[in-house]
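Review form for a predicted model. The reviewer records the input and the model, then writes brief findings.
Reviewer: anonymous (R2)
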Amino acid sequence: MKRKKRDAVPASWGYVEEKRWTLLEVKTAGPAASSLYARDSVEGKALLALHDFAGCSEGFRKIYVRSEGVSYRLPMTPQVLAFAQMPGRADWVTITRQQAGAWEGLLRDVVTIGMRKRFAEGDRAPWPWPPAADGKIYASETGPPQSLMDDTDLEDFK
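Model under review:
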């Protein structure tokens, strides 16, 4: 400490000296339980469509599609189920930078294959915006509706 011209002991020394890391809770996460869905079920169609859209359908088919069905290790959500309604590629729309960011956020959470397509402005997607958490699909360019105040809300606010 004299060599570094310091007058006080660094805070980390107390942490090490008191063995504070032993007080930290250790989280041991086991492997996630996989669910198996029939290929012709809504869940199976949604998973295949989702990974096809993400550009990793070949890897998904090699790893997760089996003779008895489609395996998926994440919980099935309404967002993922919405991909069962995905239109054909001819009906896809060109997305903006903000829309591409929204798609990236969704795919980061639901796609189980690491090597997937990264979306950017000008790419094509089945809908302008990704499905909402409750599975609702926004087919308009404006996206999810804004919750703005109307006159009665304004009067109640005052």
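Findings: The CA atoms of residues 39 and 69 lie 5 Å apart.
Further findings: The two ends are 62 Å apart (CA to CA).
Recommendation: see findings above.
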